[in-house]
Amino acid sequence: MATFVLVQGGNLSTDTWNRLAGRADYPPGGLLGGAYWDGTVAALGAHGHRAFAPTLKDEHTTGLSGHIQQIYSLFAGNSLRDVILVGHSYGGMIITGVAAAIPERIRRLVYLDAALPDPGQSLFDLFALAGRDPLSFTGLEPAKAYIEKIEFDPRNIEAIPKTYILCTKSEFRIVTGLAKQKIDAERKGWTYQELPSSHVPMADMPGELVRILLDIAER
User: Fold this and answer.
1) How far apart are CA 116 and CA 30, in angstroms?
2) Is 65 a catalytic residue?
């Protein structure tokens, strides 16, 4: 049995929530935060794995460091070890910070079409590097979580195996494209996969996403 912690991204559009809510494996109404992982959690559980998908605290009142602390507290409160830590979109910022703080508890990092920061960068900094305004491009407001810069020692995560899953039809490609460049430069310790999905594969290609995660659990 593997243990997964699935970390959500930032705000999803109404259209995305509607696509999720229209699926039989999601409850009607009330889809908030970590709930967009519900189908993934159920599928992993059906294969004998344990998965946690917490809802992050409000991004306007809680910064990136607060979200990192929230996931750290989940680990501490449930005595989690040997965890496959998955971050979607903005969640890539969070899992990087968590892994740098407690590398001994992480089995693998999985960046799902996610931001891949260097020390001293915020999510909005990554948009700026790509030459795009996040508000006009994605509708993301400059919330506290998205403008706070991450501070971590990259040496702490060097030895952790890492997987990057790039969604090739992603609306977030300007940021994930930067991540791909970084992976190509580093190479060591990375595995790389592509999924012909939008930025939200748990809505568009849920079965394929689960198969990738199940394969990761077997490594």
Assistant:
1) 30
2) no
CA-CA distance, 106 to 141, in Å (whole number)?
31
Is pTM beyond 0.85 here? yes
Query: Is the CA virtual torsion 140, 92, 166, 198 positive or negative?
Result: negative
The Cα 43–Cα 38 span in angstroms is 9
Domains held by the chain: number: 1
List the domain range (segments joined by +) for residue 60.
3-217
Rounded to whole angstroms, how far apart are CA atoms 78 and 102? 14
d(CA 57, CA 136): 24
Strand, coil or helix: 21:
helix
**54 Rama class: left (phi>0) / alpha (psi -120 to 50) / beta:** beta
Q: What are the tens digits of pLDDT across the range 96-148?
A: 999 999 999 999 999 999 999 999 999 999 888 877 666 655 556 678 999 99
- Which one of 89, 122, 170, 197 is the catalytic residue? 89
**What CATH number has the domain bearing residue 190?**
3.40.50.1820
Please report the DSSP string for 166-212 in residue order. Answer: EETT-TTHHHHHHHHHHHHHH-TTEEEEEE-S-S-HHHHSHHHHHHH
Quick one: pLDDT at residue 97? Answer: 99
